[in-house]
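Dear colleague,

Following up on yesterday's call, I've attached the two folding results inline so they're easy to grep. Please treat them as preliminary; we haven't cross-checked anything against experimental data yet. The first protein's sequence and structure tokens come first.
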Amino acid sequence: MSNELEERLDAIFQAVRDFAQDRVAELVRRGGGEVDRAELVGLLPESVLRAVPEDRWTELDLGPTATIEARLAGRGPTTPS
């Protein structure tokens, strides 16, 4: 995959994730609730992680071990066999 294409896909992923998280939190607040955090299902590219402000990582269930690169390098969580 070309670097330009990867950057565009990363930007799209980030925008969709931010919109979804913020929209869900808004709807929950309207209903009188509060979202403490989200859960990432799967992995994300390291470039996307770097684009997310670190102060939102806990809220969005992100971190250095949640990346594709960390999994490939053996630093991320593994699936039980």
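Below is the second protein, in the same order (sequence, then structure):
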Amino acid sequence: MENSQNLQPSPIKPSVDMEINKQVGTTIVEQLGGNLFRHMVSAEFYLPADCYGLVVRFKGSKVANALHIKLNSMDTYDLTFMKVHGVKIKSVEGFFDVYFDQLQPLFTQVTGLATRF
């Protein structure tokens, strides 16, 4: 899928296999809604170097502007919504053991942003 070209690696030396992480990140992007999601919330995707998952920066919400999605050992996701301003990062809300089909509704619930028509 074309989304893998939009994934930007972390500048930190990785502690995980980045090829596998790229596959995980691409899968998460697809589960969030792919290009439609990216365009609707002006999303940028980054691969974390410390875990398998994805970091999403987005615009349009007063509640949060970043989301860290981590694949956990139960093959579900741990989510942390954050407000990032410069070098200040404030954790807004966290969720554990989220199934892939709950990603979009949970994103909309927390941020108030629509992810599809």
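For the second protein, one point worth flagging: The CA atoms of residues 63 and 108 lie 11 Å apart.

Best wishes,
A.L.
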